[in-house]
Every structure is written in structure tokens, then in C-alpha cells.
Amino acid sequence: MQEEKKKLLAKIAYLYYVEEKTQNEISKELNIYRTTISRMLKLAQTEGIVKIQIEGINSEIFSLEQYVKRKYQLKQLELVPMEQGDTNEEKDRRLSQAAGYFIKRNIEANTIIGVSWGATLGNAISCIENRRVENTTVVPIVGGPSHINSQFHVNTLVYELARKFNGKSVFVNATVVQETKKLKNGIFESKYFEELKAYWQHLDTAIVGIGGPLSLKKSQWRDLLTEEDIEELKLREAIGDCCCRFFDRDGKILTGSLYERTIGLDLTELAKVPNAIGIARGKAKARAILAMLKRGYIHSLVTDQETILEVLRFDKDTAFLSD
After folding, report:
1. What is the pTM of this model?
2. What percent of the chain has pLDDT over 70?
């Protein structure tokens, strides 16, 4: 670049960024068209004459967020950065804090919020600071766990989230998996369940966890599965679940006996909710998260850097992967 042009770019940048003059003012002062001033300001950045540094943000994470948002057409993506030497407990804690803040800023007045359940979601809700929001209703979108595994019961999460926002709670009084299809249908079609089904049809926001493969030992509800259920899911290569609905690597919902005995929002219905927010982390869940993203079951995601990089790896996308 010619020295004189470089000096002119520097002068324009100085007037704009340091003296805070408008492009119109600079145009008049230097007798250059305003549109040319705009182009030259961009060129000053391209040539490295102007270097913009924003404090308080990890540019690598932000760039990754923007890329993944566009790739999977997400409304929002919140990525927790990796810290070398972090234990799984520390990663879970930082995800919970980020997810709690994300939920808090995404809840608006006059909304119906559906909640699934699990440890990740429970920890996120516990991190939310109280905030009064007018006319919020929180409802479960799955049945409850067995009596022996109820640490993060969906009703507890519903109550806690409603309490945080000074809203109304609606509860479910049935386990998520019933012994027979007939029992499930009897509950689902009963008069007591009508209110809950009506809320499911008018959800504004859904907040869900994403379960990984059957090999993962941590689970708040899979003890309700029979040996036949597990064998069937293995044969059909289930890679994860959401709202207690299992799916394969392509996001195809695995219907059958277990599906017909399960009380929970269907994933095709979850996709229709204006803002379905998924919260999950861990490389073991990457395939399940990828399937959810590709099928469009969720519209926003809170996860961490290492998980989303693993998602991209499974999607054969090397844009952010090192050799």
C-alpha cells in the first residue's frame, strides 16, 4: 500500500475512533465522499492500521459461537470456555452457572414454561437468582421418576423455577414410564391430565436436558426401563434421549413399546415450541446433541467448548478443529 494512502487511512481512523467525529463530519473536513469514508474505515481494519480489542470476551469462543449458531440455525448459543485442568465437577458447576444466567434472561412475562428434568437442569435452576416476572406458569413436560430415584424430580424443578420467578406451578402425578400402554393411555386421557395437556399446546419456552447413550451410568429415570426395553434400544442403536424420548444418530424418534408407555412431550411437539432450550455437556453426549440440532428439536443450546468441538467432529466439520 502506498505510504500516502496509509497515512490517509490512519488520519480517518484517528478522527473517527479517537476524536469521535461522525463519518459526515470527516467527509466534509477531508472533502471525501461519506461512502468512501465508510469503505476506508473498513480497509483500515483489514490492513491492521486499526485493531479493535474488546475486553471481557473470549474472541475464540465468540467466533465459535457465531459459527455454530449459523451452521445449525440456532436462535441462541451459550458456550462455556474450557479451562485446562478442570475436573468434571468444575465443568458441571460452570455450565450450571452459565445455564442459570441464560434461563434467567430468557424468561419473559406472560409465558408458559415447560421443564423436563435431570441433574444438569436441576443444578442450573439452583443457580438462578430470584427475579419477579409477571404471570409466568411453569409445567412439567415429562412424568416423574421412580420412588427410589427422585433426587431431581420434575415437580421439584417446576416448583423451584416457579418460585424463582414468583410464578405458578402445575405438577404431574404419574411416573414417566408405565407398565403397559393401556395404563399410560388411561392416565394421559384422564380428566386430571387435561390441564397439563392444554399447557403443552401453548408452551412459550421449554427447558430440557439431553441424555446420552445407554452406556452412561448416570440417569434419573432409566431404572424404569425393562431388560426388553434396553435390548430393543441397543438393537435400534439409540444414542440419546430428550423428554424421555429415545432417538438414533439421525434424530429419528424410536417408537415402539417403550414409546407407547412413556408420558412425555413428543420431540416433534418440542420443535414447535417458540424457544426450546437444551442444556447439556460432555463428549459422551455429543452425538445426541448433534442429532437434536440437525433435527431442529431445540432452538437454543447451553453447552461447553469441548462438547461443541466434539459435536463438530462427529459432523465431520474441521473448521475449528486442530490437527
Report:
1. 0.85
2. 96
